[in-house]
Each structure stands twice: as C-alpha cells, then as structure tokens.
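Table S2 (continued). Query chain:
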Amino acid sequence: METDTYRTIESKSEGIFKAKGSKFLAFAYYVENEEDIKSIIADLKKRYHDARHHCYAYRIYPEYPVYRTNDDGEPSGTAGKPIYGQILSSSLTNVLIIVVRYFGGTLLGTSGLINAYRSAARGCIEKARIIERIIEDTVILQFDYEKLNVVMRIIKEENIHIIQQQCEMECTIRINIRKSKLEKVLSRLVNVDNLKYELVNL
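Corresponding output:
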C-alpha cells in the first residue's frame, strides 16, 4: 500500500568518530533539492578547507528517490557507499550526510575506512531527531472573485494549507494538498464554475 509520508531528520545534527589518529566529523542535514545540497557542501568545504576529504551521500524526493554518493579521493566504495548505507538502514529521505576526514598519518585500509565512514554517519543519525513528514502537492487555483466563498469553504472543510493568496477581479490561490487527498479535493474544486488549476511540482 502506498503511503504519503516519509521519514527524515528535523534539523542538522553532528557526530565524530576517531580511528588511529584520523578524525571523521559527520554532519547530517535536512534537504529538499540538489541546489540545497550544492550550497551546503560548498559551505562545509570552505569551513573545513584544511581537511583531507569531504565525502558524502544523499537521498532526496520521497516519491521518486534520487541519490548520490561521493568518495572525494578515498578508495572507491569506502566512503560514500557506507554513508549511504546508513541513510537507507534508517529509512531516511531528504537527507544529506557529509563526513569530513582529517588524516591522522596512519592508513586504515579498505575495511577500516568503510567502518569509519559508516560509524561516523551512524553516530550522526543517532543524534538526530527522526520525524515523519507528509508528501504534498502544490496547486495553483484561478477563479472569479464571486466564487471565493465557495472555494474557501472547500479549503476549510478539507483542512488545506494556503501558501499564497491574491484576490481582485480574479483570484489566484496557491495551496498545498496532502498527496492522499489530492484526487478528492480536485474533484470538488473542478465543480466550481470557471475554476482552473495547475499542479506545479510534478
């Protein structure tokens, strides 16, 4: 059965793992798109510019998940994949985890690296508050002003969140509708004379 909720973290969390002199600083972020991710990674690389590696993994878009892993110079598969494995094992979406490594002078070997990056990511997730979010669709409604009361009654009865509203001769209202209620709500709205709608996030 499909669901319109997903697990993620409420806000940024941090963790640290040490192995043979190397320090692995882990940071988890709630993110919604790849623009957010690029900005966070760039900022962290500036802040920890003297670190040897900035490895990461992310998973976004709960309905059609997109993910990526990056070893940033570590041997292939020893950093990004273990980090991503922790995101999956915690069933998280819309999450970015970056692990910054300060090299301690002693090589850890393949298994040592995998364990270090996995442990750093896991510790970071354990410190985060896991929450459940609702998947919503954003819809723009356009209709004649005289139909405002009818539309607002539907919005109120269906407990819909209004994001933006502008009413003159013609009204434009931007709303968020819970995914599982989308079909029902639209079937009511289309019965309003001359109302047009547009789904903007498909």
